[in-house]
Amino acid sequence: MSILEIENLTVTFHTKDKITRAVHNISLSVEEQDSIGIVGESGSGKSTLAMAILQLLPKRIARIEGEVILDGKHLFQCTDEQIRKIRWRDLAVVFQKSMNALSPVHKIGTQMSDIYRIHESKISKKKLKEKIISLLEMVNLPSRVYDLYPHELSGGMMQRVSIALSLMHNPKLLILDEATTALDVVTQGQILSEIKELEKELNLTRIMITHDMSVVASACKKVAVMYAGNILEFGYVKDVLVNPLHPYTQGLLKSIPTFKGEKKNIRGIAGALPDLSVPVQGCIFASRCEFATDICYQVKPTEELLSGNHRVACHLVGGMEHANVNHS
Amino acid sequence: MGSFIIRRSFTGILIIFVAIFLNFMLIQLAPGDPISILSGQDSPSPEMEEALREKYGLNDSVGVQFLTYLRTLAGGDLGESILSGRPVSEMIGERIGPTLMLTLTTAILALLIGTLLGIYCARRPGSKLDNLLSGLSYLFDSMPSFWLGMMFILLFASWLGIFPTSGMVDLRANHSGIAYYIDVLHHMFLPATTLTLLSIPYFFRITRSSVIQVMSEDFVTTLRATGMSEGRIFNKYVLKNSILPTITVFGITIAYMITGVAIIEIVFSWPGMGSFMLNAISRRDYPLLMGIYLVLSISVAVTMIVVDVLYAFIDPRIRYSK
Ligand SMILES: Nc1ncnc2c1ncn2[C@@H]1O[C@H](COP(=O)(O)OP(=O)(O)OP(=O)(O)O)[C@@H](O)[C@H]1O
Ligand code: SF4
Ligand SMILES: [Mg+2]
Question: Cβ contacts (< 8 Å) between B219 and chain A: which residues?
Fold first, then answer.
């Protein structure tokens, strides 16, 4: 059963001098106990997508079209009060900059208790403290963290606090926005495996935003490749990473250095993200695609559904025969 | 926390010592000779001048003069005014009350009004009221205090006649009891309003920008994501974070007012330290001047200590760092 259904979601930012289309017509369905990685380079709209689902975009400048259905509820039709009830119980998040995720002048324990009580007001003081400490222990933090202030913790510890915080009400869906990006590789690995452990215990469904393909490879079942507000390729990690069909995905994978790989295999994708305030007629990736032909500039490719729910938006895939991608 | 207060008080005392030394040196270096004023305008005899120098220890070396000063200071003795011959501590004692009353009333009023307006506008940035108050705050900021004071006297005292032009009490009326206090309030209204209006902009602007800045911080987004109500986010979390700069400004403003209130006191003939200090300067009454400076430096140092301790009380990041 799908827990989250995103239908034709478009987000535009209306600022003083321009209109930026940060998310363009995205549809995505998240099954229960899925773990979906969303990858893409900086500025491709990953956080905007997450913030749109969370309804945390600044109302004054962000226009949202489309539907987001969480567990049967149409989020965009909910009142503020209904959204507040959904938050943290059904939908929790861990943000990128955990160091600043909590107020610097309140103790960790106070803040966690305060947040817990938003949705569970009847708990006694003693029970609440026990609950918070057990949450801290669940993410391998000592109980003394309860009485500490955020600046007294290391980046990795704050990340764990954020994870403990996000899991306190057993949310149906957890969004992690670059939750491990700022950490060193060892801590990142530890936290990823802890998340996977907890996931089994708590039946979590997870969306993981990252620009790191290796995080997707090690911690996600499915992956969506995002570029300039569009999803270009979607499918099981084992399909997409082994047999990437979209030229952009291929480029992303080639830009990861391997231990054995010869130097010539390491290269990025030439060029930069297109200006999101200028509408594009054809394929959004055409300006940087080495396979681009005339049709790519004129017609936007439709999504082709291949076997195993593998979806690709590229003229080369589907109707036309795909060029040999493994050119070396 | 305890060790922080001790550490902070220690530096405070050190600062007061430095202030004492600087005061002493400044006055030593200043031009002018009190003896020539003391001994009168018309051709004083050298013998008399010499006797006066001896009496006030002005023949000793600078070092000895400083030590003498410190020693008597330790005994609570600020010396005698060269001009009136009365103990300096007694003279300051008479004058410091009105100054403190005016400064503290004004500082607290400005703090309350400025902070509340700042918070109100920060929650509605860009609104009509916000634009109006921001404009006014710059206007009052650029106004010389004596000019505003004189305009008030012209308007409310001379033309409308609803407030007295000068002084702290009506000497002819000889009020007592409640009537006396009401009379003082009546006299204080114009100088206090002038000072308050001129100090509100500091609090207004710092609170407004601080609240706006804190509202855009990541932890506010986290709290929103958890479903916490906007009211609680603001009252419990945003306020405590944004009040910190206001406390600093309060300390600086008080320090600034203690030393800057003089002009307003002179404009309104307020019987405080202001006119008193100017007199002491122009007549080169060294003991009196040093006494006044000392009291001012101690007031400023004490305010700063209180502000720092208050700050550390709210912000744990200060408490633990050296
Ligand atoms: N509040 C905002 N106002 C205006 N434009 C915005 C706002 N937030 C994001 N954008 C624009 O939306 C686009 C997508 O930004 P977004 O933060 O979603 O990218 P991202 O994929 O999360 O990047 P990163 O990997 O760096 O976090 C960018 O062009 C950005 O400039
Ligand atoms: S549609 Fe054309 S331009 Fe776009 S990715 Fe495919 S080949 Fe490249
Ligand atoms: Mg982002």
Answer: 100-104
A318's tokens? 């589907």
CB contact under 8 A, B222 and A114: no
Chain B contact present for A50, CB below 8 A: no
- Give dist(CA A42, CA A39) in Å, integer: 9
Q: Report in angstroms the alpha-carbon separations of A28 from A75, A222, A312.
A: 15, 11, 13
- Ligand 2 atom closest to Cα of residue A286: 3
DSSP string for residues in A250-271:
HHHHHTS--SS--GGG----SS
* CA neighbor of A288 nearest in space, from A235, A321, A320, A252: A252
C-alpha distances out from residue A118 to A51, A87, A196, A215, Å: 21, 10, 27, 33
> Measured in angstroms, how far is the CA atom of residue A19 from the centroid of ligand 1?
13
Over the Cα atoms of chain A, what is R_g? 21
Question: In angstroms, rounded to a whole number, what is the distance separating the alpha carbons of residues A253 and A246?
Answer: 11
User: Complex ipTM, two decimals?
Assistant: 0.87
Q: Residue of the nearest CA to atom 25 in ligand 1?
A: A42
Distance of alpha carbon A51 from alpha carbon A58, whole angstroms: 9
B86: which DSSP letter?
S
CA geometry: angle at B254 spanning B241 and B98, to 5°?
Answer: 140
For residues A103 and B226, give the distance between their C-alpha atoms in angstroms, rounded to a whole number.
14
Cβ–ligand 2 distance for A315 under 6 Å, the answer yes
CA-CA distance, B153 to B166, in Å (whole number)?
9
Residue of A nearest to B312 (CA): A105
CA distance B90 to B74: 16
CA nearest to B214 within chain A: A103
Q: Tell me if B225 and A100 make a contact (CB, 8 A cut-off).
A: no
The alpha carbon of residue A78 is apart from the nearest alpha carbon of chain B, in Å, by 14
DSSP letters, B88-116, are HHHHHHHHHHHHHHHHHHHHHHHHHHHHH
Q: What is the rounded distance in angstroms from the CA atom of residue A232 to the CA atom of residue A208?
A: 17
Q: What 3-state class would DSSP assign to A29?
A: strand
Cα–Cα distance measured from residue A311 to residue B202, given in angstroms and rounded to the nearest whole number: 59
CA A260, distance to chain mean position in Å, is 30
> Of A256-265, B39-48, B280-289, which one has max mean pLDDT?
B280-289
Cβ proximity of B134 and B249 under 8 Å = no
Residue A296 CA, closest ligand 2 atom number: 2
pLDDT tier at A13, thresholds 50, 70, 90: very high
Q: Which residue of B has its CA nearest to A85?
A: B227
Q: Percent of chain B at pLDDT above 70?
A: 94
CB contact under 8 Å between A86 and B221, yes or no, is no
Q: Does A93 touch chain B (CB under 8 A)?
A: yes
- Residues 207-236, chain B, touching A (beta carbon < 8 A): 217-219, 221-229, 236
Mean pLDDT of B68-76: 81
| Average pLDDT taken over every residue of chain B | 85
- Whether A283 is in the pocket of ligand 2, judged by its Cβ within 6 Å, is yes
